[in-house]
Design goal:
The protein is about 35% helix and about 10% strand. The chain is of the alpha+beta class and about 325 residues long. The strands form two sheets. Strands 1, 4, 5, 6, 7, 8 and 9 form a seven-stranded antiparallel β-sheet that branches. The chain has a two-stranded antiparallel sheet with strand order 2-3.
């Protein structure tokens, strides 16, 4: 997420020290201060983790009982929660306590898994998600799909460089036109790149192979469409969400990306909003690029606007 000297000893892909992610104003100073707790944690990494965990909602709770902006389980909070604002209370629902507690907990985890081979930041993030014991057991990021997506998504979000600007309406129109030109192109699992449709790969969760099909999967179509507008998106839907700026549903505009899933790590589909309640998408094996209603799927998670960067491709 972040770059530079602060994390030189932290691993293979050091993260920078400048907070380049967009965060709520109320939490900016908290994140910048807590993001220097130890070399393995940086402001961008911490901001990306909070984005992933709660979307900066300090009142959220999960079905399994995780609480607050950093999604602490009660037992973990009892052990690792701190009184960050020195008001005499350790309150998991108070970001002034929870944000510095999350940074301290990450630092504690980094020490706990410090002898595990591989990238130290990845191991630390995996341990935050799945527990240190799982990282020790598997000698690195465990083979859990949720945890692997969690690590990838946070890294993609944290690696957003400073100076990014959301897409212009002209770029959005270019992306929509590019996608519309592909109406009828077959769906191909793993298919599509910045140059256009391509043969895909094997295999989708239901076993469908795209090796013999030249076309697009959902994120291949959005990647291609925005490449025509001069904007580089990451390859997967979850990574594209991490590299975009969320917008409120009432503020969506044509060209925004529409994401489906139950959390940032479980996003399984992405499409381009075209207006009037419709989106253009590469839906699933056996179909082709088409227009669909935005409410044709029941698990709409978020709408986000791609961010363009002058200095670095994501």
């Amino acid at each position: 997420m972040v770059v530079a000297a602060l994390v030189q000893g932290a691993g293979d892909d050091p993260l920078g020290t400048a907070l380049s992610l967009t965060v709520p104003t109320d939490y900016k100073n908290l994140i910048e201060d807590a993001g220097t707790t130890c070399p393995e944690v940086s402001p961008n990494l911490l901001a990306a983790l909070l984005t992933q965990e709660s979307g900066f909602n300090p009142k959220t709770s999960s079905p399994v009982g995780a609480q607050g902006i950093a999604q602490f389980m009660p037992s973990t909070w009892e052990t690792h929660g701190i009184d960050g604002n020195s008001d005499g209370k350790r309150d998991v629902w108070d970001p002034q306590d929870a944000i510095p507690s999350a940074a301290k907990y990450l630092c504690d985890i980094a020490k706990d898994v410090g002898d595990v081979p591989g990238n130290k930041q990845n191991n630390m993030l995996a341990a935050y998600n799945a527990g240190s014991s799982a990282v020790h057991k598997y000698g690195g990021v465990p083979p859990y799909k949720e945890t692997q997506n969690y690590v990838r998504s946070i890294n993609a979000l944290a690696d957003v460089p400073s100076g990014g600007k959301v897409t212009t309406t002209e770029q959005a129109a270019t992306a929509i036109n590019a996608a519309s030109d592909e109406l009828g192109t077959p769906y191909s699992w793993g298919g599509g790149n910045a140059s256009g449709p391509s043969n895909g790969s094997c295999c989708s969760p239901n076993g469908s192979s795209g090796k013999s099909i030249k076309g697009f999967d959902c994120s291949g179509l959005t990647l291609y469409a925005y490449a025509k507008a001069g904007i580089t998106l990451p390859r997967t839907a979850a990574q594209q969400y991490a590299a975009s700026e969320p917008v409120k549903p009432g503020q969506k505009r044509p060209g925004d990306l529409v994401f489906f899933g139950s959390s940032p790590t479980s996003i399984h589909h992405v499409a381009i909003y075209v207006g009037g309640g419709y989106m253009i998408e590469a839906p699933r094996p056996g179909t082709s690029v088409r227009f669909s209603r935005i409410d044709s799927m029941s698990d709409l998670y978020a709408i986000a606007r791609p961010v363009r960067h002058a200095n670095k491709e994501i």
